[in-house]
Design goal:
It contains 2 helices and 9 strands. With 171 residues, it is an alpha/beta fold. 19% of the residues lie in helices and 25% in strands. The termini are far apart.
Length: 171
């Protein structure tokens, strides 16, 4: 068994839409967005695990990204696990097969326009090159282990608590 990793900047350009709205646009970039992944080869099959710093990738975009990733990694799309971290100040790529469109060419409320497809394609090309390049860096895996631990008192919430101890906003 062998493993390699990849990382690619997939930051959307200024002016592109974010999350699930055609009314919210990127005004500045504080932190770049990345696609990160691992490729595991067991000698018979190659598996890709890829996480993207986007709000979501669904519909025809999901299928296309999996095909591009699979081709670059030398495997089949069914061996590609593609995930988005679901942060709200990032793109949500929803394929046209999933939503209705307004007459101006924008989706009803998911923010991918025809113009934005160009930068999405460029990010896919960059991702593909990064994955292909990573194939030269496979390292052997000597052993695989696992562990488990019971967790208590661990939680997450989307509320931002203000100085007055009340909810000041959500993320």
């Amino acid at each position: 068994m062998k493993i390699t990793s990849f990382i690619t900047d997939v930051t959307n350009p200024i002016g592109s839409s974010v999350c699930s709205s055609s009314a919210n646009f990127t005004e500045s970039v504080r932190d770049p967005l990345f696609a990160r992944g691992l490729i595991v080869d067991d000698g018979k099959k190659r598996f890709v695990f890829c996480t993207v710093d986007y709000c979501g990738i669904a519909g025809s975009f999901y299928e296309k990204w999996r095909k591009v990733i699979a081709r670059a990694a030398g495997t089949q799309p069914e061996f590609v696990a593609l995930h988005a971290v679901h942060q709200h100040q990032a793109p949500w790529l929803i394929g046209e097969d999933w939503v209705e469109k307004k007459t101006d060419g924008r989706h009803l409320f998911f923010g991918v326009s025809r113009k934005e497809k160009a930068w999405i394609e460029s990010r896919l090309k960059t991702l593909s090159k990064s994955i292909s390049s990573s194939l030269k860096n496979f390292k052997p895996v000597a052993s695989v282990g696992g562990a488990g631990v019971r967790t208590e008192g661990l939680a997450s919430n989307r509320r931002i608590i203000g100085k007055n101890k009340k909810v000041a906003g959500i993320r």
